[in-house]
């Protein structure tokens, strides 16, 4: 399998023997023991298309008709202030935490002030440039056929990402979501966000708060994890009695600065890869359907 992966030019592997060992153990254990836990923004969705950045869940709304011009400016300012901190390789996660809480809180407050209507979300998604990565249909279809659960764990906006997946025609019953969900009043107007805030770097807390979802998957001790940030590495922390975990990391931005850290953190690093080809090849190998 390792040899087969080397044909993909985006693939970097720090410890090929470890990857080989995990893949073979998962293949031997069989599809009934496997679950997939994936981040959404810039992992299931594209980072860029034709040289232009693709939107995150938040950006889908930021750029939509649901937000006034003045508010768009404020949201853009937040993005310009906090995104560089989010991806700064010289700062520690601990250092970044308060800034992430500040960013999400300010952005959500601005969205609430815009009195966003629930029934207009679908149009905002339809009119956006959001794109799932090439090969997404193969991934979702294969997981559905093999009865493998897919847990989407996102610091984005649940209502928006569900709509993206729904409009792509792949929101199958095996797909579950942990994310920030909007709270609408009886008129369908956004009045708050529900529950504990999930941001890039507190997914461990999010996982431990949602152990109920993981309990449903108690007999699935083999995890394929897909993410694009160091915060995503904690998405499987709610899984009990893990046998094997294979971590696939999309390295989309600041490649040189992050390469070493990603190679030390993820088992397989995909550099500027806008496709699902590698996760698909791996899943086919694990399920014995190649
Ligand atoms: N106001 C905001 C807040 C966050 N973002 C981006 O959304 C991404 C969501 O996180 P994932 O867990 O789905 O990766 C995050 O990486 C932020 O850059 C935003 O665009 N606007």
UniProtKB/TrEMBL annotation:
Predominant location category: cytoplasm
One GO MF term attached to the UniProt entry: nucleotide binding
Record flagged with keyword Methyltransferase: no
Class in the EC hierarchy, top level: hydrolase
Keywords associated with the record: Cytoplasm, Hydrolase, Magnesium, Metal-binding, Nucleotide metabolism, Nucleotide-binding
Substrates-to-products reaction catalysed: a ribonucleoside 5'-phosphate + H2O = a ribonucleoside + phosphate; CMP + H2O = cytidine + phosphate; N(7)-methyl-GMP + H2O = N(7)-methylguanosine + phosphate
Annotated Pfam families: UMPH-1 (PF05822)
GO cellular component, one term: cytoplasm
GO annotation terms (biological process): nucleotide metabolic process
Record localization: Cytoplasm
EC number in record: 3.1.3.5
CDD domains: HAD_5NT
Function (record text): Specifically hydrolyzes 7-methylguanosine monophosphate (m(7)GMP) to 7-methylguanosine and inorganic phosphate. The specific activity for m(7)GMP may protect cells against undesired salvage of m(7)GMP and its incorporation into nucleic acids. Also has weak activity for CMP. UMP and purine nucleotides are poor substrates.
Family: Belongs to the pyrimidine 5'-nucleotidase family.
Assembly and oligomerization: Monomer.
Protein name, entry field: 5'-nucleotidase
Organism: Clupea harengus (Atlantic herring)
Gene: LOC105890780
């Amino acid at each position: 399998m390792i040899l087969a992966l080397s044909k993909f030019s985006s693939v970097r592997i720090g410890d090929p023997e470890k990857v080989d060992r995990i893949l073979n153990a998962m293949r031997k254990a069989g599809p009934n023991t496997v679950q997939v836990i994936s981040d959404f923004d810039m992992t299931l969705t594209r980072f860029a298309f034709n040289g232009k950045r693709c939107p995150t869940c938040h950006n889908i709304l930021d750029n939509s008709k649901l937000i006034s011009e003045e508010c768009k400016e404020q949201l853009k300012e937040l993005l310009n202030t906090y995104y560089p901190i989010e991806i700064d390789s010289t700062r520690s996660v601990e250092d970044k935490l308060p800034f992430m809480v500040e960013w999400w809180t300010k952005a959500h407050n601005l969205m609430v002030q815009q009195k966003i209507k629930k029934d207009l979300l679908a149009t905002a998604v339809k009119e956006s440039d959001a794109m799932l990565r090439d090969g997404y249909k193969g991934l979702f279809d294969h997981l559905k056929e093999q009865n493998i659960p897919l847990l989407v764990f996102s610091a984005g906006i649940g209502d928006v990402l569900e709509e993206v997946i729904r409009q792509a025609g792949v929101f199958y019953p095996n797909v579950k979501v942990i994310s920030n969900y909007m709270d609408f009043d009886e008129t369908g107007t956004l009045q708050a966000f529900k529950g504990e805030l999930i941001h890039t770097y507190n997914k461990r807390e999010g996982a431990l708060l949602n152990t109920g979802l993981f309990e449903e998957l108690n007999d699935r001790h083999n995890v394929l994890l897909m993410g694009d940030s160091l915060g995503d590495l904690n998405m499987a922390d709610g899984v009990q009695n893990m046998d094997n975990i294979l971590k696939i990391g999309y390295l989309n931005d600041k490649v040189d600065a992050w390469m070493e850290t990603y190679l030390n953190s993820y088992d397989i690093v995909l550099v500027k890869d806008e496709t699902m080809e590698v996760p698909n090849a791996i899943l086919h190998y694990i399920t014995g359907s190649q």
